[in-house]
Amino acid sequence: MSDTVSTGQPDTILKSVSSENSINGQRAPKTLPGEFYEQYLSRAAKNRQPDAIRSLLPLEHTPGVISLLAGKPNTSTFPISSLQFTTRDPASPSSNEIQLQLSPQELAVGLQYSLTRGLPDLQEWIHGLQAISHKREKGEGWTVAIGAGSQDLIYKAVTALVNPGEAVLIEAPVYAGVLPIFQSLDCDMIEVETDAQGIRSDSLRATLESWPAAKPKPKVLYTVPYGCNPTGMTASLERRLEVLALSREHGFLILEDDPYYYLYYGSAPRPPSYFQLEREQPDVGRVVRFDSLSKVLSSGIRVGFVSAPEVIVRAMELHTMMANLQPSSLSQAIALKLLRTWGYAGFRAHTEHVSQFYREKRDVFEAALRRHLADLVEWTTPEAGMFVWFKLLGTAADGSTLENDSESIIRTKAFEHGVLALPGTVFLPSGRKTAYVRAAFSLLPPEDVDEALKRLRVAILDARASSA
Ligand SMILES: Cc1ncc(COP(=O)(O)O)c(C=O)c1O
């Protein structure tokens, strides 16, 4: 059986494949067929050829096969002969520790080249995690690849989907680390506004409904839906559903960059991810989801993963083959040992501890904001992540006015007074002036937070005095 779906792309009526399969008793969703992505893949992605050796590597895992294939070094010549580490027990992190040692086989895997998409056992563990966290079962129109952090995968996904000069939808303010990717492709960055409920779907709709007929519509939307870097905002369920509906109507794919997913500490139940929500859509395959272990296990370990339709993952895999062959086997082997030992329940317990840790940090920071800056700035309380995004207010108690630009105060006055923060302008694709400032509350002890905000008060008052 097949079904017909309009993607919203001009002149494009595409067929989606209907699956009669049922996975774990649930009816599997309809998945978009591989040809659907033909219109999305960039010229660079289409031009990339597979590496002849790496393409055959998965066959080495065929039982009974003797491989004379890859020029792999013999691990017995490597000097590292054992690897042990200690981890906190997620069931009682303050009192118990678990000693771990990679088995000779695990160590050999960690020291050797492996598959371009990542260690098969870690891919498997991630499939299980996504089923628990997002209710997306393996085989339901998506697959996994591991990268050197999510940044590596975001870069590869963008270059697999976007041609130089094309228009892209970017929520604004946006994670400053993706701007150079779009800038290097000379993209026409279309800002989509955000507010306390996250991305503004009405702003997105208005942009798309007034899109010039002669100009190709954007193929991707980039968004950070939980504890957004820099605003700290989490997109509401309603907004997410509207964005999903718009993606079908106007034919764009959603790049869901979600490194703060496990750092949600809001009191209300968390909204599901786009990746989960799309399962309830008439078909699946419009969400490219990025996860990261950086905020919950280690940022130095450089392990992130993408969950996306096979065609997109394959295009990214070809990029990895030519750019860096694969993510680090050793990092993956360490992460896998830890994750398997903890199990999914342990991972969940650990991430709950981590999110509570940041909730407490948020509370300390907010209390200091109230103490020192309540009359000088305004902010919305973040419910996930590690950032507060606050606005310098334009009018002082004495009636003097302040420039609608945080940059000079933050870069010069604040620094002179011994405090560093980021002016909001660096998070805006257009680089326009803004009164906002991003402060990270992840690292500082309470006394340093207090001192920093005290200094910021003096810097702002000083700036006001000199601009009066
Ligand atoms: C929104 C966002 N995306 C991606 C990244 C990159 O994370 P990773 O360490 O997984 O590469 C960061 C890092 O701060 C981030 O804030």
From TrEMBL:
The keyword Transferase is assigned to this record: yes
Ranges of residues in domain Aminotransferase class I/classII large: 117-456
Protein's GO biological process: alpha-amino acid metabolic process
Cofactors required: pyridoxal 5'-phosphate
MF annotations from Gene Ontology: pyridoxal phosphate binding; transaminase activity
Bias (Polar residues) ranges: 1-25
InterPro entries: Aminotransferase_I/II_large, Class-I_PLP-dep_aminotransf, PyrdxlP-dep_Trfase, PyrdxlP-dep_Trfase_major
Ranges for region Disordered: 1-30
Keywords associated with the record: Aminotransferase, Pyridoxal phosphate, Transferase
Any Pfam family: Aminotran_1_2
Domain of life: Eukaryota
Cited PANTHER family: AMINOTRANSFERASE, KYNURENINE_ALPHA-AMINOADIPATE AMINOTRANSFERASE, MITOCHONDRIAL
Family according to the record: Belongs to the class-I pyridoxal-phosphate-dependent aminotransferase family.
Protein name as catalogued: PLP-dependent transferase
Source organism of this protein record: Obba rivulosa
